Amino acid sequence: MERSTIVRVHEGLHARPATRFVKLAKSFESEVEIVRDGKAVSAKSSVKLMLLGVKEGQEVTVRAEGADAIEAVEALIGFLENPRAGLDDDAAPQVQTTPAAVEAAKAPPAGPPAAAEGKGLAGIAASEGVHLGPAFAHFPPQIRAENRKLAADGIAPELERFRAAVDAVRARMDKALADDQLAEGDRGIVAALRDIAGDETLVGDTTETIRGGLDAVSATVATTARLAQEFGAVEDPYLNARADDMLAVGRQICLALLGQDDASLDHIPEGAVLIAEDIGAWDLARAPLERIGAVVCGHGGATSHIAIIARSHGIPAVLGLGARIHELREAKEVAIDGNSGAVIPDPDAQTRAAYRKRIDEAAAERTALEAYRDTVPTLADGTVIEVAANLGALEEIDAAREAGAMGVGLFRTELLFMRHMHLPSEDMQAEIYGALAKAFAPAPVIVRTLDIGGDKPIAGIEFPEEENPFLGWRGIRMCLDRPDIFRPQLRALMRAAVHGNLKVMLPMVSQLSEVVRTRELIAECETELKGRGVPFGQFELGVMIETPAAVLIARELAKEVAFFSIGTNDLTQYVMAADRLNPTVAGLNDVSNPAVMTAIEMTARAGKEAGIMVGMCGEAAGRPDLIPEFIRMGLTELSMSPASIPRAKKVIVELAKVAK
Ligand code: PEP
Ligand code: MG
After folding, report:
1. Where are the active-site residues found (predicted)?
2. Spatial CB neighbours of 533, under 8 Å, sequence gap ≥ 6
3. Does ligand 1 come within 6 angstroms of the Cβ of 569?
C-alpha cells in the first residue's frame, strides 16, 4: 500500500514534527517507509527522518506493509497534509534562537576585545552577561572504543547488555522528566534526548554491529559518531546541533555499559565558571544551575542546547573555543564576557578590577531600576510616553515583559524568514503574529513587514548582486515586487489583527505610492480572506521614517498613515551618507549630529500637525542622553531592546519631575 502527497507541514519534517510523525508511525504494526527523491527510510526512526530532510512543498510517498497498512498510510498522509501537524507537541524541544544568537552564530569566533588585547581567548558569545569566578574544569575521561572482537557465544549476552543499557538510560531520563526537577524549558531538551536514546536507527544499527561481532561500547561509539557526522554535514544549523545530542546520548549508553557514572557537576562551587570540552545537554540540565556562574566550552555554537539552556537561565556563556579550551584547564580563576566572547584565564589585578566593576555596576543598576518596572512614565501635562520593546522572536516576550515593556514598538519579521529553510507559510506567520499580539494585548504591538535586502540572503528569495545593497532592492521595494511573498504576510497580519491591538508598519518607505500600493494589496487580501471564510481584523498602518525622502515628504505621508516610527539606525546612515556597518566612518554615524536631529524634528512636527502618533524604534530611542530631546520634540513612543527599558523609564520620570 502506498500513496504520494505534497508535504504541507510547516518547515517540513524536522525536530518537533519528525518526533510526532514517528510516534504516529509507531502506533501501527505495519512496516512503514517514507520515500523522497527515490530515497526510502523507515518512518519509525526520527533520526533517519530528520536526516532525510523532508521540506514543506516536497513530494513524498508513504509506503506500508502489514495488517494495518491502509490505516497507517491514511493517518500518515493526513499528518503530512496538515500544516499544523506537530506544532502542538510539547515533548520535543523548540530549538530556536534569538536575533543576537543568530548574529553570534554567523559571526566567526574571533576578534573580541580581550583577544585583541592579547589577554585571553575568543569564542562565540552564546549567552550574554559578564562574570568573574573560580574555574571549575570538567573534563570527564573519554570513552575509548576498544574494538573488541566477540566470540560467537558472546554475542547474545552482549546484545542483552546493550538493550539493558539503553533501557537504563531511558529510564533515568524518564525519571528526571517525571520528577519535576527540571526547568520547563529544559524538559523538552531532555525529552528529545530520551527519544534519540531509543531511536530505531541508533539502536538498530548498533545492534547490527554487535551481531557482527563487535563489543557494545565500540559499536555504540561507532554508530553515534557516524550519525553525528551525518547531522553535522546537513546544511541546517538546527540539525547540525543534533550532532552533539547523538554524541551525548552515545556517551550515556557507554557509561551505562561500563557501569560508570559521569563525572558529576554536583559539587561545582558557588559562582564557578564551568570549563569543559563539551557538556551534554542532559548533564547541564540536571546540574545545579543556580550555582553555575558562567560556562565556557570547546564545542557548541549559539544554536546548541548548551547555549539555549544557558540563555534561558541567564548564565553567561562563551562556546566554540575549539582546542584552545585546554589552555583553561589549569586556570584558577576565569573572567568571561558573554557579550563579546572574551575569556580571560587568571586575569591580572587590573583586569579583575575592571570586571568586578562591570559586574557590580550591572548588579547595582539592575536592582535600582527594578523599581521602574511597572512605572507608566507620564509627563507633567499628563501625556503617557509608551516605552516599548523591539523584538525579533517570540522567545523574547518574557524578557520584554520582565523589563516592563508597555507593548512592542518593532517586531522585526525578517528573523522568521531567515530562520527557516524556506519561506514561512501564511498559516505559520498568522500563528506567530497572533501569539505575539495576544501576549501583549491590549497593549499595542507593531509588526514591521519584511525588511530584507541583498545584505541578508534568505532561502526562497533570489537577490540580484548589488554594488550597494543598502541602497538597493530591500524592504518595501522588494515586497511590492514580490506579491507572492508580501500578500501571505499581509493576510497573516490581518488574521492576527483579530486580537485588536496589532499595528503594521512598512520599512524603507521613500515614496507615497508605496503606501498607496500596499493599501490596494491589503484590500485585495481582504477579499481573498472573505472568500476563504477566514476570520480577520483591521490594523492601523504606519510607516518607518528612515530615509531622507520619507522625512522630506512626511507631511504627505502623514495624511495616508496612522503613525510614524523613526528608524534612526538607517535614517542616520542615509542622512549622513555613512554606512552603518563601516567602522571607518563610525564617527559620522551619530544620531546626535544636528543634521539627523533636524530630520527627526521635521518628522515629529509633520506628525503632530496631522495629529498622528510619532514614535521611534531605532537604537537611539533608548539613549538616556537623547530621550529628553525626543520628548521635547513630541515623540510619545520609544521602542528599544528590552534591557534598555527600565533606564529609559527612569529618565522620563525624572524629566517629568523637573518639569513640575
Ligand atoms: C532602524 O533603521 O532604525 C530600524 C529600527 O530598523 P533596522 O535596524 O532593523 O534596520
Ligand atoms: Mg531600518
Report:
1. 305 (tele-phosphohistidine intermediate), 617 (proton donor)
2. none
3. yes
Could you tell me if 266 and 68 are in contact, meaning their C-beta atoms sit under 8 angstroms apart? no
Q: Give nearest CA residue, ligand 1 atom 6.
A: 567
How many CB atoms within 10 Å of residue 230? 18
Chain segment 21-51, per-residue pLDDT in tens:
888 999 999 999 999 999 999 999 888 888 8
Using DSSP's 3-state secondary structure scheme, residue 186 falls into helix
Which ligand 1 atom is at minimum distance from the Cα of 412? 9
In this structure, are residues 324 and 336 in contact, taking their beta carbons and an 8 Å threshold? no
The reply, when asked if residue 570 is annotated as ligand binding, is yes
Burial, 23: exposed, middle or buried (Cβ in 10 Å; 0-12, 13-18, 19+)? Answer: middle
> Where is average pLDDT lowest: 123-137, 249-263, 453-467?
453-467
3-state SS, residue 132? strand
Residues in the chain: 660
User: Of the candidates 156, 178, 158, 176, which has an alpha carbon nearest to the alpha carbon of residue 166?
Assistant: 158
| Residue with CA nearest ligand 1 atom 5 | 618
Cell numbers for 339, please give them.
557579550
Residues of the chain above pLDDT 90, percent: 58
Give the number of other CB atoms < 10 A from CB of residue 490.
24
Reported as a single tens digit per residue, the pLDDT across 530-555 is 999 999 999 999 999 999 999 999 99
Neighbouring residues of 116: CB distance < 8 A, sequence distance ≥ 6: none
Catalytic residue selected from 305, 313, 420, 499: 305
Q: Which domains does the chain have, with CATH numbers?
A: 2-80 (3.30.1340.10), 99-140+265-369 (3.50.30.10), 152-258 (1.10.274.10), 371-659 (3.20.20.60)
Coil/strand/helix, residue 40 = strand
**Which residues fall within 8 angstroms of residue 635, CB to CB, at 6 or more apart?**
385, 566, 604, 614, 615, 616
Alpha-carbon torsion (38, 42, 44, 47), positive or negative: negative
Nearest alpha-carbon partner for 413 in 451, 456, 460: 451
Alpha-carbon distance 286 to 304, whole Å? 17
C-alpha cell at 528: 481573498
Assigned C-alpha cell, 137: 574544569
CB-ligand 1 contact for 409 (6 Å cutoff) = no
Beta strand spans in 432-539 (E): 445-448, 502-506
What per-residue confidence (pLDDT) applies to 106? 34
